[in-house]
Amino acid sequence: MLRHVVLFTWKSEVADGSVRAFADGLADLPPLIPEIVSYRFGPDMGLGGGNDDFALVADFADAEAYRRYAEHPAHRHLIAELLLPILGGRHAVQYLVDS
What we know:
The protein has helices spanning about 15-30, 65-70, 75-85; strands at about 1-10, 35-45, 55-60, 85-95. By secondary structure, it is α+β, with helices and mostly antiparallel strands. α1 (about 15-30) packs antiparallel against α3. The longest helix is centred in the first third of the chain and has 17 residues, at about 15-30. It is globular. It starts with a strand and ends with a strand.
């Protein structure tokens, strides 16, 4: 199993509605992209200083399934239309986990 973890920070002027639209867009992806095994995401709870604003954790069967997800038109559209306009910064990692 391959786990994909992404941490996002938003631009300072981002409205809550834009973040909600991004989260709604993420919620729409699992039915459209069969390679997604597990998909969890949400805003930082603000319990520590210096945290990123939002996190995504997704699981895929293998690296090829992850690549198909990454290039899927619905995923690419979400990035272009809902993420890039609000994105201030991004960190990501992919690693293997026991299934």
